[in-house]
Design a protein that fits this description.
Blueprint lengths: L19 H39 L13 H6 L3 H32 L5 H9 L6 H11 L8 H14 L15 E3 L5 E3 L8 E6 L27 E7 L23 E6 L2 E7 L5 E4 L8 E4 L19 H26 L3 H9 L4 H29 L3 H6 L5 H4 L2 H9 L6 H30 L1
Parallel strand pairs: 3-4
Antiparallel strand pairs: 1-2, 2-8, 4-7, 5-6, 5-8
């Protein structure tokens, strides 16, 4: 018997998706995607790529742009003292500002969680972000003004200083040239002739406007002489000026005012043996003096210039002062970002730590900060990129005489190119240097975002 072998029919070959139709669909999808992306690419090329390439090429030419100089501009900028100052100041900005902002933002974000009106407090701290750098620069230029009548910071500093130290009421007072007082090397004034016990002295001063007299000043009265052999010396310190004219220099007239609160010393053999302060009518008196002559002295403290506060915008403090303005603007930004990260922390870990007996400081240091490390890093790197480009605040707040002391790379690039230097070759080299410094921070930030998305 013959066996019949039946072969199974093969199933039809599946249509592979990579056929001609699939390839056309993918090609069409790429074209559509490119059409959507094309406007953004054109804008990016016009505003970023072209300026970068042009700056790199321009940095290889001289100031006129006609002669190729190679890397001379790059070597020149590191020989220029002002550019080295800009590099140093930029380094200070990069280290100090992001560190302080990240720390302040972390502390405020943690503390805000503990208060009732957290939203209002966040809004209040974030409001400076709505102020332009130009407006913020003008605000802080006025706040840092050295004149206490204009600068609010110096007004506060002077108020605190005068509350504890006091200030002279007669900074501009001086005797007439023909009066019996001579100026000493230490700024004080002393009588030319000695005064013996029983004698009197009239010490007239000028240089004080009547409107600047203390409110308790009374009309001056010339001291009466004492009998010979008395143990006291008396006198008067007065304003040797008669309002409305008239009067005789060196003589106490009826309408002349005494100078209250003036310190007077009796000096013998170079040593102060007695000291007193004038009354409301300018009178003074020393008692219990031994016989002999005494020099009457008005110490330099009476004529010390008033305390004017701190030179916030001087060469020493101008950079820290501008960084302070930057902190005022960006603290809210750091606090809000870190607060968002703080809100996403697992609360069970914090509660477990509290149940195990950890105090708030231990929870903050060992749990909160480590869990917030990715957010803190992003905030820090973002601020580093931002401070490298700071220009407005430095240019507006720093006065002209200290502009070089406060300059950073961005301001130096502008000053060299357009602010009087007219050397766009060197300015382009500074721009390329600034780009090279920013790129590593940008790459780090992009990589961190990609890792967080995974």
């Amino acid at each position: 018997m013959t066996a019949t072998v039946v072969k199974e029919a093969k199933p039809p070959a599946p249509v592979h998706p990579d056929g001609a139709r699939g390839r056309r669909a993918r090609r069409r999808g790429r074209v559509v995607a490119l059409l959507f992306v094309l406007p953004a690419l054109l804008l990016l090329g016009a505003l970023v790529v072209y300026p970068v390439l042009f700056s790199v090429g321009r940095s290889l030419f001289d100031a006129s742009g006609s002669q190729f100089v190679g890397v001379d501009n790059y070597t020149e900028m590191f020989r220029d003292p002002t550019t080295l100052t800009a590099v140093r100041n930029t380094a200070i900005w990069v280290v100090v500002a992001p560190t302080l902002l990240t720390g302040l933002g972390l502390i405020l974000a943690v503390l805000v969680e503990k208060i009732r009106w957290a939203t209002a407090f966040k809004l209040l701290l974030f409001m400076p972000m709505a102020v332009s750098f130009l407006a913020a620069g003008i605000i802080f230029r006025l706040a840092y003004d050295e004149d206490p009548d204009k600068g609010v910071l110096n007004a506060a500093v002077v108020g605190v200083h005068d509350a504890f130290t006091g200030t002279s009421s007669y900074p501009d007072a001086r005797p007439r040239d023909d009066e019996g007082l001579t100026r000493q090397p230490d700024g004080s004034y002393a009588t030319r002739a000695d005064v013996s016990p029983g004698g009197t002295a009239a010490l007239g001063l000028v240089g004080i406007a009547p409107k600047d007299l203390p409110g308790d000043a009374e009309p001056a009265r010339e001291a009466a002489a004492r009998p010979a052999g008395a143990d006291e010396v008396s006198g008067v310190v007065y304003l040797d000026f008669t309002p409305g004219g008239g009067g005789e220099p060196g003589v106490v007239d009826d309408r002349e005012s005494g100078l209250p609160g003036m310190k007077v010393e009796a000096v013998r053999d170079g040593k102060t043996v007695a000291s007193t302060t004038t009354a409301a009518d300018g009178s003074f008196r020393f008692t219990g003096l031994d016989g002999g002559g005494y020099t009457l002295k008005l110490p330099a403290d009476n004529f010390a210039p008033p305390y004017e506060g701190i030179s916030w915008l001087g060469p020493t403090l101008v950079t820290p002062a501008i960084i302070g303005a930057y902190l005022w603007i960006w603290t809210g930004f750091a606090m809000v970002l870190i607060g968002a990260g703080l809100a996403a922390l697992p609360r069970d870990a914090l509660e477990a730590a509290r149940m195990d007996g950890a105090n708030e400081w231990q929870i903050f240091r060992r749990i909160t900060v480590p869990l917030l490390a990715p957010v803190l890093t992003v905030v820090f790197v973002t601020l580093v990129i931002n401070v490298m480009k700071v220009f407005d605040l430095v240019y507006i707040i720093a006065p002209g005489p200290v502009q070089e002391d406060a300059t950073v790379l961005a301001t130096q690039m502008w000053l060299v190119s357009f602010g009087g230097g007219n050397d766009q070759g060197l300015g382009s080299a500074l721009g390329v240097l600034l780009l090279l410094l920013v790129i590593p921070a940008m790459v780090f930030n992009v990589r961190r975002f990609r890792r967080s998305q995974r």
